[in-house]
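User: Teach me something about this protein's shape.
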Amino acid sequence: MVPGFDGTNVSARFRSSETIKQLGFIFIKSQARPTMRRQLLCSITLLWSHTAWCDSGQPPAVPLQFREHVEAKQNRASDRPETNPSPQKALLVQGTKAPGMEIWLDVGYATTNEACRSQTLFARILGAPDVIQVVYDSVRVPEEDTKFAFKLSLDRYLPGECGWKPFVLRFAKFEPGVTSGPLFTTPIAVIRDNGKENAEYTWVCHREQKYHDLEKTPWLACRSPRRISNEDMTISSNGAVVEIHLAIDTESSEP
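Assistant: First, the predicted structure itself:
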């Protein structure tokens, strides 16, 4: 998710069931012990069941559920970050949004020490490389609020041996009563030592039906009216003020 560390649908990584078939052939021909081979084939079967929609082109639309704290599946308990007893660096996020829209804002923290890279057992069996460990802390802005302001801590966790640091600010949006949650989170800005101390972002959203949604649910799709440069999408890890504005363009929305 940047995005994708917190449980990105496995099926999105394998766009064709042919890929799974090839993996299965490789594992069957491997010199693994019978017990290990059975485990690998079981894993492939499970993965195939998750990607069955690839042949039909109908992936499921499953809304996310709000959680204040999320730890990625590849994280190790021994590397869990320690909460900073006296945080000093703050990210002030404030702005406006359309009534009837709920948004979630989160800050992602990641390990920077190469020795702390990790992976799930399932992904490791399939040969996936180790990746950074990440956690996300979130706040929500309910649908009835049209203005909001939050202070999010950028040094919420001590660096520790794994070098935990903030790396991304994200948001998710949806309309309660229309859908039960958003489909995905969207990066707002990358957090870096040399990032900007002030930033402003505006999105205009419209309702559209996803090609794979058999129930024809009108999901919110948001776009910026101006081009956003890489520099604009980088904010300071030492503290910053971020202005966010979200509007709904009902005239251009699909019926």
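Now, about its shape. Residues 48 and 146 are 44 Å apart (CA to CA). Confidence is low (pLDDT under 50) at residues 1-32, 35-59. If you'd like, I can walk through any region in more detail.
User: That's plenty for now, thanks!
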